[in-house]
Design brief:
- The protein is of the alpha+beta class and about 400 residues long.
- The protein has eleven helices and 13 strands.
Length: about 400
């Protein structure tokens, strides 16, 4: 196990209070003085079920985590932007300004806060002054737990607080998605930013991405926990096949729309899909659309199962979700498949699947309390043997949305 914010003994996370102190201390060292500095937090997220449905007008079921991104920020008198990340200390202070808000590859992670400042301006909230911003995240980088959405929501929350913008958390999520799409060029759906901005302790968000209607569903796992297994295979979303999958689905949708009146793939039931799928002129696109339709229905069933306290059924639907992502959507890869298939062999695993965009990143499993140690040992050993390097494991809790600490 390992992460920037884990206690030295590896037995649990450093408390938020300590993360706050760490950020303030480093801010003073890097930018000079701690006068006028505030510290904020925005969570990462894990999606329990409903993968690659968010840009297909379907349902998703994510929850915010108690791990995420901490930010210490101070308003400046000029238009300068100075960024520093404790996760990328070798990069030092990276400078920009309000006049230079454009996406640049060499700007690395700072494209996310810059994108938010730009997007706020596009939405009519002109940021008048620059700022000094220090970040420290305890989401494993490249893990697929949405460190980018966490940084976007955090930056938006900071801008709202520093400059007094009247923006709701739901609007923050939409601005974050806009920044990721239009500034950073990743054609993502709304789920990641929504989960980070709207998180609620102990609850997952059952979100209909077609109209943004949502409800909070309590996740009551008696004698079980959510365990994240991080493959440690790095993946860059923008460079992955994410945009390709999205366009395959858009083409399939256009073909279906010639024979049935739908706005999104999420509008179809499984039966309707089987009835109309001949309209899709390519075998690969049939598989992609099938996943989007079936996964959406699985998500609806999974939430009903949870409400009825049928946790075993919820786990079974998680397993089916992974199989569909592996064979119909083809976004898993050997690392994620190994983690999931080894998880299924462990007694006490209720369900396991990849989570996030795929092509590396993480899996999410529901594991009975008395099986957690065996799970980490067995899956870890088998993964190291097959893949050649270690996976990391995190027993996580469901937390709240962004806050000022």
């Amino acid at each position: 196990m390992g992460s920037l914010a884990e206690a030295p003994d590896g037995k649990g996370w450093v408390m938020a209070e300590n993360m706050k102190e760490l950020a303030l201390k480093k801010f003073e060292e890097v930018f000079g003085g701690a006068q006028g500095v505030n510290v904020y937090f925005a969570p990462g997220r894990v999606n329990m079920i409903g993968e690659h449905t968010d840009y297909n007008g379907g349902h998703v079921f994510p929850c915010a985590l108690t791990i995420g991104t901490y930010g210490a920020a101070r308003k400046r008198e000029d238009g300068k932007l100075r960024f520093y990340s404790m996760n990328f200390e070798h990069l030092g202070v990276m400078e920009s300004s309000l006049d230079e808000l454009k996406m640049e590859k060499e700007a690395g992670w700072t494209n996310y806060p810059k994108g938010m400042i730009w997007a706020f301006g596009e939405k009519g909230y002109q940021v008048p002054f620059g700022m000094d911003l220090l970040l420290n995240g305890n989401i494993p980088n490249g893990s697929g737990l949405s460190s980018s959405a966490s940084v976007e929501v955090l930056t938006g929350f900071i801008l709202k607080d520093l400059f007094g913008f009247e923006v709701t958390n739901q609007e923050l999520a939409l601005i974050g998605q806009y920044a990721e799409n239009k500034f950073n060029g990743v054609n993502c759906g709304i789920m990641d930013q929504f989960a980070s901005a709207m998180g609620k302790k102990g609850r997952a968000i059952f979100l209909d991405t077609a109209d943004l209607s949502f409800e909070y569903a309590p996740i009551q796992l008696e004698n079980a926990k959510i365990v994240i297994s991080c493959s440690n295979k790095k993946r860059g979303l923008a460079d992955s096949k994410y945009n390709e999958r999205r366009s395959e689905c858009e083409t399939a949708l256009a073909e279906l729309q010639e024979v049935v009146g739908i706005r999104n793939l999420g509008d179809l039931t499984q039966e309707q899909f089987e009835q109309y799928k001949a309209a899709i002129k390519d075998e690969v696109r049939v598989k992609r659309a099938k996943h989007a339709v079936y996964e959406n229905q699985r998500t609806i069933q999974a939430v009903e199962a949870l409400k009825a306290n049928k946790i075993e059924l919820f786990g079974k639907l998680m397993n089916e979700s992974h199989i569909s992502l592996q064979y119909d959507y083809e976004v898993t890869g050997v690392e994620l498949d190994t983690l999931v298939e080894e998880a299924w062999k462990v007694d006490g695993v209720i369900g396991s699947r990849m989570t996030g965009a795929g092509f590396g990143g993480c899996t999410v499993s529901i594991v009975k309390d008395d099986a957690i140690d065996a799970f980490i040992e067995q899956v870890g050993k088998a993964y190291q043997k097959k893949i050649g390097y270690d996976a990391d494991f995190y027993v996580v809790e469901i937390g709240d949305g962004p806050s000022k600490l």
